[in-house]
Design the sequence.
């Protein structure tokens, strides 16, 4: 990703807290939505897309954006097949490099 | 082009106003006419694997085709609307967008940016800045940087 400095602190995304299985749904939330780094998408753009698609506050979106930038990828959510597929469609609609992977 | 502020309607900020020169408008419309640039094969549901014919991959490609069609329709409406730019009381040229319009414009501009980058062979974008006008890839380089420039202004508005 490209561009500008971001003032948010670098912290590890709290993916564990976000992705506990939902017992109420009783569904298989074993599908991971992952965003991969590329050198062309602007950092501010990626942050904005995460905010829009997931409804996250800016700080959380920035944490994930920075993780993509610094480590090459970020696990965004762990979801059911349908929801994961929906999110990947949304992210790819913004031309982000996002994929859906089955949790091993 | 520069972000000139939000416009409130009924106390709620619903419109985003931009100052735009005639030259910038011409440039924006020229680059928007390039849409779509990103090819279907760019969209992959999985990172690895040869699931080109899988249901998941097909559903993704159908979704992207529908989105592209919707964007093209909105673009045609935008390009065919002379009132999209007007002069304010001070004589400055203005373009006003709703939040929804800004979102799809961001998607369209990024399709052009990423699609041009893919056509160039996915280089480091910074390494492409010294391209010359006569170069075979000059159009793609220009499209990548110009669409990125407009994106940056739109992003300023949503921040």
Sequence:
């Amino acid at each position: 990703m490209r561009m500008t400095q971001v003032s948010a602190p670098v912290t590890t995304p709290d993916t564990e807290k976000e992705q506990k299985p939902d017992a109420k749904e009783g569904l298989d939330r074993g599908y991971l939505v992952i965003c991969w780094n590329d050198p062309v998408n602007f950092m501010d753009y990626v942050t904005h897309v995460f905010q829009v698609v997931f409804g996250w506050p800016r700080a959380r979106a920035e944490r994930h954006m920075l993780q993509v930038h610094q480590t090459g990828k970020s696990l965004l959510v762990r979801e059911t097949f349908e929801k994961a597929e929906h999110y990947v469609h949304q992210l790819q609609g913004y031309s982000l490099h996002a994929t859906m992977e089955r949790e091993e | 082009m520069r972000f000139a502020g939000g416009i409130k309607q009924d106390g709620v900020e619903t419109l985003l106003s931009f100052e735009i020169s005639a030259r910038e408008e011409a440039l924006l419309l020229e680059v928007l006419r390039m849409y779509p640039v990103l090819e279907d094969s760019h969209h992959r549901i999985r990172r690895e694997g040869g699931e080109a014919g899988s249901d998941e991959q097909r559903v993704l490609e159908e979704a992207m085709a529908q989105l592209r069609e919707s964007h093209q329709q909105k673009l045609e409406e935008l390009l065919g609307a002379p009132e999209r730019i007007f002069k304010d009381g001070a004589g400055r040229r203005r373009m006003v967008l709703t939040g929804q319009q800004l979102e799809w414009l961001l998607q369209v501009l990024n399709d052009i940016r990423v699609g041009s980058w893919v056509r160039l062979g996915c280089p480091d974008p910074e390494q492409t800045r010294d391209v010359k006008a006569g170069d075979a890839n000059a159009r793609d380089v220009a499209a990548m940087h110009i669409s990125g420039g407009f994106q940056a202004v739109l992003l300023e508005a949503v921040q």
Observations:
- Chain B has a mean pLDDT of 90.
